[in-house]
Automatic annotation (TrEMBL):
<dbReference type="InterPro" id="IPR000120">
    <property type="entry name" value="Amidase"/>
</dbReference>
<dbReference type="InterPro" id="IPR020556">
    <property type="entry name" value="Amidase_CS"/>
</dbReference>
<keyword id="KW-0547">Nucleotide-binding</keyword>
<comment type="function">
    <text>Allows the formation of correctly charged Gln-tRNA(Gln) through the transamidation of misacylated Glu-tRNA(Gln) in organisms which lack glutaminyl-tRNA synthetase. The reaction takes place in the presence of glutamine and ATP through an activated gamma-phospho-Glu-tRNA(Gln).</text>
</comment>
<dbReference type="Pfam" id="PF01425">
    <property type="entry name" value="Amidase"/>
</dbReference>
<dbReference type="GO" id="GO:0050567">
    <property type="term" value="F:glutaminyl-tRNA synthase (glutamine-hydrolyzing) activity"/>
</dbReference>
<keyword id="KW-0648">Protein biosynthesis</keyword>
<comment type="subunit">
    <text>Heterotrimer of A, B and C subunits.</text>
</comment>
<dbReference type="InterPro" id="IPR023631">
    <property type="entry name" value="Amidase_dom"/>
</dbReference>
<protein>
    <recommendedName>
        <fullName>Glutamyl-tRNA(Gln) amidotransferase subunit A</fullName>
        <ecNumber>6.3.5.7</ecNumber>
    </recommendedName>
</protein>
<feature type="domain" description="Amidase">
    <location>
        <begin position="26"/>
        <end position="465"/>
    </location>
</feature>
<keyword id="KW-0067">ATP-binding</keyword>
<dbReference type="GO" id="GO:0006412">
    <property type="term" value="P:translation"/>
</dbReference>
<dbReference type="InterPro" id="IPR004412">
    <property type="entry name" value="GatA"/>
</dbReference>
<dbReference type="InterPro" id="IPR036928">
    <property type="entry name" value="AS_sf"/>
</dbReference>
<dbReference type="GO" id="GO:0030956">
    <property type="term" value="C:glutamyl-tRNA(Gln) amidotransferase complex"/>
</dbReference>
<feature type="active site" description="Charge relay system">
    <location>
        <position position="72"/>
    </location>
</feature>
């Protein structure tokens, strides 16, 4: 069996026992990429020789020593292209530094291997918005892998990576994890440094792991968490060993089930899998507590004011002057700005910049942006009150399984509404995980994965991982 199919935990045991070498892992991943990625299109670039060289010098005494990990193409890796799947940066930018998470992975002994495809500048939920290629779902090639971290989910699901890093602004780790049948963890805001992540919406973005098991997610979270002086929003909070309580049972834990996450919009097949998962948790001794989060109905509208507003500011740095795409023979400075951005950005990015600029403009700032921030506070408050009653919250990740390519492509509002189950966690700054909980059949009988979402309070990753690990064993 290829080593590319195994988990971090199992590979580490074999490495420490001297049964395998890190070079063998890299070689098996290289063979898997060669065999599969031509169909799936999940990698934007990779350097097997550099990874093999790092593997030869791997320090196996470190927590992730000898383990190759793929990294989303908006997280900087020194000397490698960072494209954000955009024409603006493709072929025009090699990172001069490591993101903090990249440096921490290396310090833990991991080997960065490959940059994964994504929706352009992380704006989208299908990876169809990539300007480079459209990544396919490994379980059904006619279906999307989700987004924006679609490539990061697909490489783990296809066994062309052991694990990967993604970023989550409104569900971009959890949703593709659900669609591809892998584990995806969004840490609490401030738990993991954002330094070196190309910003989409700075108050919402967070980096996290995508893995084949809950234990692997905990192992990576151990490595990438912690204070960072380069990121003022990164908290100086204790970093526990997130693997420590994975084996404990959940008897007596209170798990909230919010009615607002189970509306008529929820697909029957998805709901059946979620209901079955909740029943398993109850049978394992957890107390299921009905709760209400009434402001959930405003979450999508709130998010699509705040996130585009921050994006319009963050993406103003892409002007054709300092780096990236530059229009040829501009007539003047204004023409340089206009044409560089027109040629460099794709339709979804332009849509969000225009929307964000509008809600921040004179006469509309208070009507839209200020009001959205007030609603965000209500959402945060409701979660805080809920977590005074329950230890964690369980919900669907997505209203449906992975859609087909082109589905709703002419109706962006429909796609925005599909984020209803994931957006609230980003607005509230809390942690959440998607863990596989079953499948539904598509029209041709292919099995499409479904994910169970487990949400925890701010800095409550240990509880979320404990519930997820228990469910993983039950399933």
């Amino acid at each position: 069996m290829s080593l590319a199919t195994e988990t971090i935990a199992s590979l580490r045991k074999k490495l420490l026992a001297g049964e395998i070498t890190s070079v063998q892992i890299v070689d098996d991943i290289a063979a898997a990429i060669e065999a599969k990625d031509g169909q799936i299109d999940a990698y934007n670039n990779y350097n097997i020789e550099a990874a093999r060289e790092a593997a030869q010098n791997a320090d196996l005494s470190l927590p992730l020593g000898g383990i190759p990990i793929a990294i989303k193409d908006n997280i900087n890796v020194i000397g490698e292209p960072t494209t954000c799947a955009s024409k603006f940066l493709e072929g025009a930018y090699n990172s001069p530094y490591d993101a903090t998470v990249t440096a921490k992975l290396k310090a833990a002994g991991a080997i960065p291997l490959g940059r994964t495809n994504m929706d352009e500048f992380a704006m989208g939920s299908t990876t169809e918005n990539s300007a480079i290629k459209a990544t396919k779902n490994p379980h059904a090639l006619g279906h999307v892998p989700g987004g924006s971290s679609g490539g990061s989910a697909a490489v783990v699901a296809a066994d062309t990576a052991i694990a990967s890093l993604g970023s989550d602004t409104g569900g971009s780790i959890r949703q593709p994890a659900s669609h591809c049948g892998v584990v995806g963890l969004k840490p609490s805001y401030g738990r993991v440094s954002r330094y070196g992540l190309v910003a989409f919406a700075s108050s919402l973005d967070q980096i996290g792991p995508m893995t084949k098991s809950v234990e692997d997610a905990a192992l990576i979270l151990n490595a990438i968490s912690g204070e960072d002086k380069a990121d003022s929003t990164c908290l100086d909070a204790e970093v526990p060993d997130f693997t420590a309580n994975l084996g404990e049972d959940i008897a007596g834990m209170k798990l909230g089930v919010p009615a607002e996450f189970f509306g008529e919009w929820l697909d029957e097949g998805v709901k059946a899998n979620i209901d079955a998962a909740i029943k398993k948790l109850e049978d394992a001794g957890a107390e299921i507590v009905p709760i209400s989060l009434p402001s959930t109905q405003y979450a999508v509208a709130t998010y699509y004011i705040i996130a585009p507003a921050e994006a319009s500011s963050n993406l103003s740095r892409f002007d054709g002057v300092r780096y990236g795409n530059r229009a040829d023979k501009p007539e003047n400075m204004l023409d340089l700005y206009r044409r560089s951005r027109e040629e460099g950005f794709g339709p979804e990015v332009k849509r969000r910049i225009i929307l964000g600029t509008y809600v921040l403009s004179s006469g509309y700032y208070d009507a839209y942006y200020t009001r959205a921030q007030k609603v965000r506070t209500l959402i945060q408050r409701e979660f805080t009150e809920a977590f005074e009653k329950v230890d964690a919250i369980v919900t669907p990740v997505c209203p449906t399984a992975a859609p087909e390519f082109g589905q709703d492509s002419d109706n962006p509002l429909q796609r925005y509404h599909a984020d209803i189950c994931t957006i609230s966690a980003n607005l509230a700054g809390i942690c959440g995980i998607s863990v596989p909980c079953g499948t539904v059949d598509n029209a041709t009988g292919e099995k499409l994965p479904v994910g169970l979402q487990i949400l925890g309070p701010h800095l409550g990753e240990a509880a979320v991982l404990k519930v997820a690990a228990n469910y993983e064993k039950l399933r």
